[in-house]
Structures are given as C-alpha cells and as structure tokens.
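Lab notes, practical 5.
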Amino acid sequence: MSTNLDDIADLYDQQLLKILREGRETLTKDGESVRIEATAADLNVIRQRLKDCGITTTATGDSPVANIIEEWRKRGMNLPALDDMDDAATA
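Output from the prediction step:
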C-alpha cells in the first residue's frame, strides 16, 4: 500500500474511533445540533472494518485499529474468533 493510501486508512480508522468514543452530531427536527451515541449502522461499519483488517480478539500495538478494539471491549462487545480454516475477509 502506498503512503497516501496508508494515510487515508489511518484517517478513516481515527474517524471510526472518534465515532465509537464520542458518538456523532446530528440535527433534531428543530434544527438543533445534538450528540448521539454511535448508531447500530456505525457499529456495523466499525465491526466490518475490524473484520476486513483481520482483527479478531487480539489488539496489537497502539494503532487506531487497536484503540477501536479496546473501546469495543470496554462496551462488552466481542469479535468472532477465527479458526485455522477461516480467512479474515471471509469469516
């Protein structure tokens, strides 16, 4: 992967982590800006990102992806374990 693509991936992971930790801003019917917790759709995107990166139950290093996993676990969520036959992208 080129440096630019690595930078984009890191920025993407940082945004996902921010959504997981802080939620997101949305507008009420009256146009007022409010912060809400991560939605089911947000969590599904984060889950799929972790799966696509081959992350199952072991966080490695101090990368944005590892931080997402740590936050995920704090919330009592688990990722599926892969057996020897599974591929991270197809499990």
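Observations recorded by the TA: The radius of gyration is 15 Å. The beta strands are 24-27, 33-36.
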